[in-house]
Here is the input.
Amino acid sequence: MKMKNKKAEQAADKEKHKEQLKAKRRTETNVERSTPILIEKPTIIIVCEGKNTEPSYFNKFRLSTATIKPVGEGFNTISLVKRAMQIASNGNYEQVWCVFDKDDFSDIDFNNAIILAESVGYGVAYSNQAFEYWILLHFNDHQGGGIHRDEYNDKINKSLKDYNITYDGKKSKIITSDIFEILDGIDEKTGKERKKLAIERALRNYNKFDHKNPAIEESTTTMFKLIDELIKYI
Here is the structure.
């Protein structure tokens, strides 16, 4: 019963939050509506290192004023950025983002991938060491410092235990709809949206470094930059 109740409370909190946002939008609506103009939504392409985890996460976002296109390529660091350049040259995209991890890739390749992506105007959402660190920050107020990626799975599942949900970070590595619903929900302790808590925590930890050598700045993630951007289009 405890698990069911907690999940029900989570759903109720999320629904209440949605109703509050709708009410706010209604009060801000101009009564003198102009003739509607059909405007094509901008497309944001997100080129991901992982074929499963990252695309399964980004595909759950529902943007009302933009189109999101996650692509899982299986490339890493510099090769991923070069692949993003190929893809971007064949399409019309408002924004191009590269999502990749430090993992065990060389410091030089990791740092140069960031430099290359930024030099052509792409956004970079890297994680040092891995993407799951971003997921962990939705639950865990980690203050920075070393935490090996092999520990992420157990820590995430410890937080998901009360919801009777498990993240398989060793095989499928899929962010399921149930997991995303929790990530997109309200934190019971603070009353804040979990994704906004993750943004705050990631930004705080990121600001502890000077970013001259991102490869050694563990644990950090710039996923907060990408998610903060996507939120604008929800």
In short: The two ends are 33 Å apart (CA to CA). The chain has nine helices and five strands. The beta strands are 43-48, 67-72, 95-101, 123-128, 220-221.
